Amino acid sequence: MNQVHNAVRRIGVLTSGGDAPGMNAAVRAVVRSAIFRGIEVVGIRRGWNGLINGDIVRLDEKSVAHIINRGGTILYTARSEEFRTPEGQQKAVNTCKLLGLDGIVAIGGDGTFRGALALSQHGISVVGIPGTIDNDIACTNYCIGFDTAANTAIECIDKLRDTMQSHERCSVVEVMGRNAGHLALYVGLAVGATAVLVPEQQENFQTEVIEKIRNARLNGFTHYMVVVAEGAGSAYDVAKKIKEEICIEPRVTVLGHIQRGGTPTGRDRVTATRMGYRAVDILATGGTNRVVCINDGRMCDIDIEEGLALHKGIDEEEWTVLEAMTGV
Ligand code: F6P
Fold first, then answer.
1. What's the first-to-final CA gap in the chain, in angstroms?
2. Considering 19, 110, 134, 268, which one is annotated as catalytic?
3. What is the pLDDT of residue 1?
4. Among 77, 230, 260, residue to substitute to test ligand 1 (most atoms within 8 Å of Cβ)
5. How many CB atoms lie within 10 A of CB 54?
6. In 109-237, where do the E strands start and end?
7. What are 11's strand-pairing partners?
8. Is the model's pTM score more than 0.90?
9. Which residues of the chain are modeled with pLDDT < 50?
């Protein structure tokens, strides 16, 4: 067993922002890794709001049993407006002091990390774990939940394809991702989409969508699958434009929150477990203000502020491959 840093006796763990499959596995890993080192864990419910309101639950080995396979988060989650204010942050600091928390592990996306940064500026030790289906945290190649969400979307689109093929139709499917196209690009590659529209590459609707469908028709195809990232615009608007330009009437499906639920894949469970372990390791050895990352398959961590300042574009290589695979 590693040495416990003198100051660290009790830590808190919370999930914040949009939930992501694998968050429970991360909570479990934080709790088990902490107990392994002799550190107590307090669960903070409902994200940063829970820290403001002292909404807590004690967590032991047993309370996190049988959750590694469950989607959602047993700690509930929220997006906290109050935590953005100095007053809200001060209340959260007071809760940390009252409970004797020596550190916090915050699992979520960039909004969660901005909260973590604010808290660390008040002298509280905080470590972030990236959990978001959007996979849009720049300092890490991978965020917990992406693989499960992608596979859920792929399964749904495969089903859609059956009926689109039978009716010789065009389907426009909107996938989540907030302002980023990582999910849409990956899903588009996996379902063999006719065209994919992502916010990072949407200057030319003609070449990215219309020409792709036209080429597919010229190649003899009579059904078309267009995947649209929500950040690139509404699938209904895309369908309308397609109808205006090439006189076919697409059917629209917005996959929505179904993408956020479900049993986490093995990749999400294992990544979450490794990240949870690493987060506790950082706190236990006196680290603070860090985000756990996985880059080139290796676990690492980075200063939260530095991490938040980075920008993540879509994977250029995936996009190049997609260009060759679409419109045929
Ligand atoms: O960040 C995760 C995410 O699912 C985004 O893809 C989406 O834009 C957003 O959250 C939806 O948020 P809400 O659950 O508040 O509707």
1. 57
2. 134
3. 46
4. 260
5. 15
6. 126-130, 170-175, 195-197, 224-229
7. 41, 103
8. yes
9. 1-2
